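So, could you explain the following?
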Amino acid sequence: MSERLYTVDEVNALLPKVSARWETVMQLRSQLKGLYGELEAAGAPPGQPAPKDPSPKVARDRAVFEGLAEALKDEVEAINATGCVIRDIESGLCDWEGEHEGRVVWLCWRYGERECGWFHELDAGFRGRRPISELRPIGTVRARGQA
């Protein structure tokens, strides 16, 4: 659980940067998938020991793969640093903790959505998403445990 609760407005203010980072994540994932396939076809998939005498292309591709994987890790960490919990890296789904009627809920957003338009109960998951319009005004952000 987060150290704080977020308002819908705060999440929406974060979304331009979060969305740009998700765009980078999606591009990196695509590049990694393609490169993984090439390395696997060459008999040198990442995650396994490198061949003893790899071709220059295999050596270069493995180094590029490692660099892309590190860049992906950095982007994911930057997204997490906004206070969200990443739920699905494939679709760019993430949640921030908010409050509704005195209880903590997830403010839910997925890459490609224009704004945070959904929330769900802590145990409901994506299928339990409900429109933000059902939330009454959340008010000010409070640290967990404050009245």
About this structure: Residues 51 and 92 are 35 Å apart (CA to CA). Residues 15-82 form one domain. The radius of gyration is 20 Å. The beta strands are 85-88, 93-100, 103-110, 118-121, 130-131.
